[in-house]
Amino acid sequence: MYFPSDHARHIFEESPRDSRDAICKLCKSTVSFESFAYYCRECRSHFHKDCLTIINAKIHEHTLTFIRRENPFPCDVCGRDDKGMDMYGCLQCDFFVHRQCIFLPKVIKLTRHSQRLSHVFRISDGDNICGVCRSQVDVRYGGYSCIEKTCNYVVHSSCIIRFDVWDGKDLEEEPEPEEIDSQVDLAALVEIDGKSVRHFSHEHDLLRLDMGEKEESGQVCQACVLPIEFGSFLGCKQCDFALHDVCASLPRKMEHGIHIHPLTIHVDAMNNENGFFTCSVCNQHSCGFMYKCCQEDCEFKIDVKCASFAEPFDHSVKVALNLQDLQQNVTKDAGFPWSSNA
């Protein structure tokens, strides 16, 4: 069998049945005895038949055919023209797409944005800055945009693939989740009588105190484990428990762009080894409050200091930083399934 356009000057033959360790060059999965596949002796490559031509792809209405030769055109989905990436073309129309872009999800949810995002083939005109890499989004190519029409949040399609920002779930046919369970969504602080408040982490009522008073010096915040040096704070008159005002208002459940899953706050460090835990972002030990991933099989943990970072960073020295820079420090056991694509 000869494919003059798909596999230039090479001949495809039926894949040998004795190739037990054969791997498809395109999908990287095993070529089993039951699968229908081709083999090229010239380059010693195996190809599943279904990988050479893809039908009924969500990304395009026509059959897509693998193009073996180098293609000088950019991908019509992500806009990138990276060499070495497997490219497919439509023989009926002028459409070219990377293999990895064929299988992009239709609807996704990122922890760095409050609403779901849907894939579109053209981004609306405007000042479109990618919510992941912070660079301009080319309106001529596709991307992801917020489902809320009044919101201009957009993301490059390539950023969904390249960076650990997506949990791998396509939400196209899944309804919007109902409101969070009331037991989890309880406010961190409850006002008692105008002077005292109750915090979910402590058994005693707390008073609003001022560090300007001498008798209140030497206090340490139980959440961030940093000294309370000035301003007002919440303190307990029955014990030495104290919290910064900001730390006392931390949500009990949050989504943070540094991790792909929701996080829940844990306040009892004694449940950890020796009363300490290691932050997955800064790798520092802490005995303060901890945000932990809601997924049972994910070991991601973050202290409240790192959890206080939010995008975009606005620093007086104008250092160009975003969550990608912090993610370089996240340990490999943090639960990211897509790190191999970065």
From TrEMBL:
The keyword Repeat applies. Residues 9-59 form the Phorbol-ester/DAG-type domain. It comes from the Eukaryota. InterPro entries: C1-like_sf, DC1, PKC_DAG/PE, Vacuole_Formation_Reg, Znf_PHD, Znf_RING/FYVE/PHD. PROSITE patterns: ZF_DAG_PE_2. GO terms for molecular function: zinc ion binding. Keywords: Metal-binding, Repeat, Zinc, Zinc-finger. This is Phorbol-ester/DAG-type domain-containing protein. The lineage of its organism: Eukaryota, Viridiplantae, Streptophyta, Embryophyta, Tracheophyta.
